[in-house]
Design goal:
The chain is α+β, with helices and mostly antiparallel strands and 466 residues long. Helix content is 20%, strand content 37%. The strands form 3 sheets. Strands 3-2-1-4-5-6 form a 6-stranded antiparallel β-sheet. The chain has a 6-stranded mixed β-sheet with strand order 11-10-9-12-19-18, covered by helices on one side. The mean pLDDT is 96.
Length: 466
């Protein structure tokens, strides 16, 4: 066996790809992933499994008379024999492309990760050692209580290795776990949902979630029909997270400067510095936030409005996007920071909203004279980018609160709201807590949000959805 065929470790694959490169610049990203999952239905496990994956992305840059071009090629299940064709394909893509608008010198100077040459971190079914027995106990309690549990638990661990022709050798291990639990009545007429995000399944207890869902199914025994309209509404942390994640996805500086987003100022410029909320809101991201840790450097597999392959390896600092209710930052790459004259603010791997509130959602319910309590939102879509008007549906329980008590379940609604406008109208924020954004859980899970009280949330029409 040749020495080349013995190249199997991620860092060796990165080094070999860089060695094969004949381009003027090269970035290689190796993603080594593993996952373990459990699924259940009707109070019984149905499936479980463990998977492994490998994806290699090669970014070649070529300097020409008209500027620097880039070519990006990604392939899965790459072996040593696949490396040279992959590198050549990226180089051919770069030579066939026009100058890259976002071209910048490749990043230098970031200290190497001390574990760059270590084996990738892996997850397996052992991650559920403590969780699985508790799940069995939740099944037993649900059977005794006349309800059925459905759902899944998924844990992923991705080790990302980034190497560049400028000498960067960086690595980040990203664990990501989600738990989603649905409780249904035997006749399927009542449904309630709860979800949690976790790094290791040591801080989630399915019996606690089951108890919460049992209460909600009890609320749903009384059905109340309400018409569309504006209602005082309590948005739980999961719903707040879904809305603000979309807001951040729409917060690219260049788009705002060019007058294409809600953060554009009429007549030109941006809304930076503008007061968005009367509450002392802080919206921030921090790679080192406890329990929400994310990559401390840029990992960009492609270029777009808020990311650039040329920025791979660039340090990602803690950033306060909204400070004391004022718009403080918009996201930039090195290229768009130069275009707009704004501070360099690379993308975010987690999102934290805090307004200094101390009340739990239950305490906010107790302080409500009359209003709606939501469980979650889904099928969120953009209607108008200029105002960031979103539409979507409520799901798995909308409850009527009267005199501090939940008195029954009402019908579902379609809503039409802008998260930016909601922040301006929010009258109260609760205690910030780690939450799972239900709508975006396939793409983004690391969030901590408070519940928000909205005096006049727009339920635009009645929905027959569950």
């Amino acid at each position: 066996m040749s020495s080349t065929n013995r190249i199997t470790k991620p860092h060796e694959i990165v080094e070999r790809a860089l060695e094969l490169s004949t381009a003027d610049g090269c970035v290689v990203i190796a993603d080594e992933g593993s996952s373990a999952n459990l699924r259940w239905a009707g109070n019984a496990l149905t499936t479980n499994g463990v998977t492994r994956s490998r994806t290699l992305t090669v970014i070649a840059t070529v300097d020409g008379k008209e500027g620097t071009a880039s070519g990006v090629v990604s392939r899965s299940a790459v072996t040593a024999d696949d490396l040279e064709p992959l590198v050549r394909a990226a180089e051919a893509a770069a030579r066939g492309a026009g100058p890259a608008e976002d071209a910048q010198p490749l990043v230098t100077g970031t200290p190497a990760s001390p574990d760059f040459t270590d084996a990738p971190a892996e997850t397996n079914s052992a991650v559920f050692t403590d969780f699985a027995p508790a799940l069995g106990e939740a099944f037993a309690r649900a059977r005794e209580g006349g309800r059925e549990l459905y759902g899944f638990a998924n844990h992923e661990l991705v080790s990302t290795y980034v190497g560049t022709s400028t000498g960067l050798r960086l690595r980040h291990d990203q664990p990501n776990g989600t738990l989603e639990l649905n409780a249904k009545s035997p006749d399927r007429q009542r449904s309630a949902w709860a979800g949690r995000s976790t790094r290791d399944f040591k801080d989630v207890d399915p019996t606690v979630l089951d108890a919460e869902l049992a209460v909600r199914l009890g609320w749903a025994e009384r059905k109340i029909d309400l018409p569309a309209g504006r209602y005082e509404t309590l948005l739980p942390p999961t719903a707040v997270a879904d809305l603000l994640i979309y807001q951040m996805w729409s917060a690219a500086a260049r788009d705002a400067v060019e007058g294409r987003t809600v953060f554009s100022k009429p007549g030109g410029g941006t809304r930076l510095g503008e007061k968005l909320s009367e509450l002392p809101l802080s919206l921030r991201s921090d790679p080192n936030a406890p329990g929400l840790e994310s990559a401390p450097f840029v990992i960009a597999h492609s270029s777009g409005d808020d990311a650039s392959v040329f920025d791979n390896g660039l340090p990602v600092p803690a950033t306060e996007w909204i400070a004391d209710g004022h718009l403080n930052r918009l996201s930039t790459t090195r290229h768009t920071a130069g275009l707009t004259g704004m501070q360099l603010s690379p993308g975010f791997g987690n999102l934290i909203l805090d307004a200094g509130g101390e009340k739990s959602l239950e305490e906010m319910v107790a302080a409500t004279e009359r209003g709606l309590l939501l469980t979650c939102l889904w099928y969120i879509r953009e209607v108008d980018p200029a105002t960031l008007l979103l539409t979507g549906l409520t799901r798995d329980g909308v409850y009527l609160v009267e005199d501090g008590q939940v008195v029954g379940e009402v019908n579902n609604f379609r809503f039409n709201e802008s998260p930016v406008d909601l922040l301006s109208r929010a009258s109260e924020a609760g205690r910030t807590e780690k939450t799972l954004p239900r709508e975006w859980s396939d793409w983004f899970t690391r969030a901590a949000m408070p519940a928000l009280r909205i005096p006049d949330f727009n339920m635009s029409s009645v929905s027959k959805g569950v």
